[in-house]
UniProtKB/TrEMBL annotation:
This is 6-carboxy-5,6,7,8-tetrahydropterin synthase. Signal peptide: none annotated. PANTHER family: 6-PYRUVOYL TETRAHYDROBIOPTERIN SYNTHASE, PYRUVOYL TETRAHYDROBIOPTERIN SYNTHASE. InterPro entries: 6-PTP_synth/QueD, 6-PTP_synth/QueD_sf. Belongs to the PTPS family. QueD subfamily. Pathway: Purine metabolism; 7-cyano-7-deazaguanine biosynthesis. Its cofactor is Zn(2+). Its EC number is 4.1.2.50. It comes from Brevibacterium picturae. It holds the Pfam family PTPS. It is an enzyme of class 4 (lyase). It catalyses: 7,8-dihydroneopterin 3'-triphosphate + H2O = 6-carboxy-5,6,7,8-tetrahydropterin + triphosphate + acetaldehyde + 2 H(+). Keywords: Lyase, Metal-binding, Zinc.
Amino acid sequence: MFSLSVNDHVMIAHSLPHEFFGPAQALHGATIAVEVTFTREELDEHRVVLDIGEALALLDEALTPLRYTNLDEHPDFAGRLSTSEAIAEYIGTDLSTSLADRPEIGITVHLRENPRAAVSYTVANRP
């Protein structure tokens, strides 16, 4: 198995309006570090998992709709909690759509909202 990881970050605002989330119920900002790992069993004809420049561009395209946005007002999060897990799923789904013509490439999104906690989402069963 081969892998390529690229990273970036995104600054968002959101609230998690349920008592389960304690003080995070209130509107607050977050800078989220994002790392995406692309995998494949065999290298392509160019002997790469994915071109690094393309991987960076794909990640930037996935993050652009989230940058400096209040996710409480973002149409893709309307009516659902914008937890780190949900944000990772959103990014993974976007990347999966962008790579729909290359289903052999696996995608895992790793988010870190603070130095002590991280979440990951692996896109399952690529078409």
